[in-house]
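Question (not urgent): is this output format expected?
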Amino acid sequence: MSQKIWQIYLSGEIHSDWRERIITGARERNLPVSFSSAVTDHDASDMVGVNILGQEEDPFWRDRKASGINSIRTSTSIRLADLVVVRFGPKYKQWNAAFDAGFAVASGKPIITLHDAEHDHALKEVDEAAKATCRHPEQVVEILSYLVS
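Got this back:
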């Protein structure tokens, strides 16, 4: 009988190496996991709508086109996931990460949040819904290792 391959969706900020650290750690431990994520190239993600559907003068409609297309990928990946890891970084307001966390919980998917202590108060409701809150990507790898053993 083959071992289950866990589907892990990595949501959140795109300005640090947290995804690579989790993926590398999982590979080093030979964990039976597969990762998916939103498009992490900021420009490619922001411009997908106009690149495919045509230019927009109004930034609202440019963003709306992109968010519609991106949400297909995100919602599908979250629905297929066994677990969602949501990273809130120290810079920028990651509304999309908060939405992904809520969508995952509403879809019955367990989430792990990953953020620095400085965001504890702002994320208290999100952390309450999480099964674990980590400070470092390596802690996520430790949890994954425990879950799949």
